[in-house]
Each structure stands twice: as C-alpha cells, then as structure tokens.
Design brief:
This protein is an all-alpha fold. Helices cover 59% and strands 0% of the residues. Helix 2 (22-34) packs across helix 3 (45-55), helix 5 packs across helix 7 and helix 6 runs antiparallel to helix 7 (117-133).
C-alpha cells in the first residue's frame, strides 16, 4: 500500500523538479492522485479552478494523506448517492494500492449503516465491478475527461 503518511505534496517532492505554476502543480497532483500518467491541459474556467485550487492547493495541504482524503470521498460519494464519480476513485485506489479489495468491501458494509442500504448496495456493486476490471497495482489509468486519448 502507499506509504501511510504520503501527502500529494510529499509525493511531488520525491518525484523531482517542482511544478512552476499553480496549474502545473495541480495537474501533476491530479495525475498522481488518479494514476493517470499525464493530464491534458483542458481549457475553461472549471478546469482552471479544479487544477489550480482543488488539486494545486487543497489536495496538497498538510495533515491528511491521499488515502485519507480518498476515504472521506468514498463516504461523501456514498452519502450523496453520486456513484457516477465512484469508478475513477475506486480505480485510482486500487492502482495506487491504497486499499485492498477486501478493505473496499468492508467500507461498503460500514457505509450501509450510515448512508442507507440502497446507496451502500450501489456503492458495493461498483466496488465489485471495479475489482473485477482492475488490471493490477501500478496500472496507469485513463484520463476520463476532455482531451482524453481515444483508443
């Protein structure tokens, strides 16, 4: 599994040269967090805020590891019933070796008691689907947004 205290900032520091702009730092963090390899520079204000603020600042704050942040995301996604964003989180968690398949299954069981059975069942169904489709630790994931490479 990923080092227990690894933040996105510490992962960047060990990678070598720091990014020169907030956008570059955010795109590097996105690539690391989601195991995407390289993130295309997508135009638009929404992507700018996502790259520069969410990933450039928030994901790089001290105090929580990438794994801890992702665990909170699992809870928020399940509570909101927003399963459309869950596959990218599960794929990254498996590729980065942050959670084992059994730990993901246990998260679903635990969440059932707090977010309700239907939402946890949907969460669990996606967990099982992504585990079946997982290609192994360290696998580079595909960027799902605009500018993604088409097979």
């Amino acid at each position: 599994m990923s080092p227990p205290h690894e933040t996105a900032r510490s992962a960047h520091a060990s990678a070598g040269t720091p990014a020169s702009t907030p956008r570059e730092r955010g795109m590097e963090t996105m690539a690391e967090v989601y195991a995407w390899g390289q993130v295309p520079d997508v135009p638009g204000e929404f992507f700018r805020v996502t790259a520069e603020h969410l990933f450039g600042d928030i994901w790089n704050r001290e105090g929580l590891t990438v794994r801890e942040r992702r665990l909170m995301l699992f809870g928020a996604i399940a509570a909101l019933g927003e399963t459309s964003v869950l596959p990218v989180q599960l794929d990254a968690a498996l590729a980065r070796d942050e959670f084992t398949p059994d730990q993901l299954r246990e998260i679903a069981v635990f969440l059932a008691h707090y977010v309700g059975w239907p939402r946890a069942a949907a969460f669990n169904n996606l967990v099982e689907e992504r585990i079946r489709q997982h290609k192994g630790k360290g696998t580079q994931q595909e960027f799902p947004g605009p500018g993604a490479k088409k097979g």
